[in-house]
């Protein structure tokens, strides 16, 4: 997590811009209990909203956590997600089109591959290759996608979501992750991170019973993407599930037999043009390949010319009906490349690069 002095600077800047001057952020800026410290035994034990602390900077939680068949469909604002297997996982993506991820990380909602979770469904054809990996300490999905089908602009470099954030309320605020991949029963994945953008994604959910969950699911290296936070061998058009070894802790590498921790430079210094190391890609084994149409048979189809979706699971839902319908259009307008900042404590600076998989510095994010 960034130092408290950085939080103070960010909040002081935001307060100053709004006409409120302060030397330090008031205590009401932070939740009484940070999101990463909130614990829930199962999805059934969740309250209507996990984030009940109204901060001065970001306002209220966008969606809700009590999700069921009444909330399922392409209007859902469910912010409870599931991360179970290659055919049953979710990603955080925008609730509406037209805004870049870096400006709405606090508002992202769950998009899932399988119905039954009370969420939106990832449309057919959106996933262009997925590698699912189960290691001793975490489960991870890395892949390629058509991000326009998840309400993202076509050239959005994206952002990073995690359960921390500058105000400790998480990105998204109130976002909670559950997985049954560790021991067959649903457990809250307390530490996780999700990069999405440049038509690629990676999501890692660390075993809450592991001693190093916070290290494997580190959240401070938000400027260096999937290649360093989730090193992988994902391939486009390949859908496979593997066993794997643990990666090195993100940001940790070895020089002359000694462990060295990389320090991410502040955004104010400009583009990251080089790295002192290349992340080691862990060994994988027992890989099984699948056909995407079989894996994601329940995925809704999306019209490329109209902002509509078609699926048997679609429901307006009593909660979802309080907001305008999500478009999920296949093509959207908007361009990345400008420097923006948002009240959710996130900022983004677009830079040249290829994707989130190489030494890519396509986007910089505050986590």
TrEMBL record:
Keywords from the UniProt entry: Membrane, Signal, Transmembrane, Transmembrane helix
Membrane-crossing segments per the record: 348-366
Signal peptide range in chain numbering: 1-22
Protein name: Macrofage activating glycoprotein
Domain of life of the organism encoding this protein: Eukaryota
Region (Disordered): 308-341
Keyword Signal in record: yes
UniProt lineage: Eukaryota, Fungi, Dikarya, Basidiomycota, Agaricomycotina
Species for this entry: Ephemerocybe angulata
